[in-house]
Amino acid sequence: MLTSISGRLAAFSWLLLSAITAMGLTLGSSGNVAVNVLMAVVFGLVGGFLLWRTRAAAILHRTHPADPAVETVLRTQLIANLAMALLGLAFASAAALRVWREAVPVFG
């Protein structure tokens, strides 16, 4: 349960970063459009991967609920999800400051 919530939080933070990067394209010059679009796609792919990994961990837990090895994997997954959530939220905060405070694209 906690692994699923933390995985969704991690995915949301990276999808938020992707959205902020894409929103930044409406501001500033159009010199670095390709870089911003590419990075928005990369951040979105990271978020999608985190959602997929969370789903795979949930299926693993449902199929083998009492296996000690699965519990170890889920504990590791929880730690990784929390780290990815913190990293994604930190990057999203920095990108939001760049887009809305400085009124320029994230990369540019």
TrEMBL record:
Which ranges does the record mark as transmembrane?
34-52, 78-100
Keyword entries, A-Z: Membrane, Transmembrane, Transmembrane helix
Q: Which superkingdom does the taxonomy of this entry point to?
A: Bacteria
Protein name in the entry: DUF202 domain-containing protein
Native species of this protein?
A: Ponticoccus alexandrii
